[in-house]
Amino acid sequence: MKVKLKAQLLLPSYIQDCCAQLHNLFQGSMSVDEYTREFEKLLIKCGIHELEEQTIVRYLDGLEPKFANVIEL
């Protein structure tokens, strides 16, 4: 039911915009917590279901390198 409602109520451009935001998401001046919350919010909005390893790579790619290196360890 949730999938059907989403398909009927959301414009395709909304989902495309969310996916573009996720693709272009970088930590920048955000804290790691803020970046993590934004990342998770966009994953939910996009409805992306991928392997955990792919999600981790996507997450680490947007982090500042000094934090990504520590988290990756």
Describe this structure in words.
With 73 residues, the protein is mainly alpha-helical. Helix content is 74%, strand content 0%. It has 5 helices and no strands. The longest helix has 15 residues, at 32-46. It is elongated, with a radius of gyration of 14 Å. The N and C termini lie far apart (41 Å). The model has no long low-confidence stretch (mean pLDDT 87).
The largest sheet is: none
* Amino- and carboxy-terminal Cα gap: 41 Å
Number of helices: 5
Question: Over the alpha carbons, how many angstroms does the gyration radius reach?
Answer: 14 Å
How confident is the prediction overall: mean pLDDT? Answer: 87
Strand content: under 5%
SSE pattern, N- to C-terminal: HHHHH
Net shape: elongated
Please tell me the total number of domains.
1
What is the percent of helical residues? over 70%
Uncertain runs: none
Count of β-strands? 0
Structural class: mainly alpha
Topology diagram in text:
Elements: H1 2-9, H2 12-23, H3 32-46, H4 52-62, H5 65-72
Feature tags:
single chain, 73 residues, mainly alpha, 0% strand, elongated
Compact summary:
The protein has 73 residues and is mainly alpha-helical. Helices cover 74% and strands 0% of the residues.
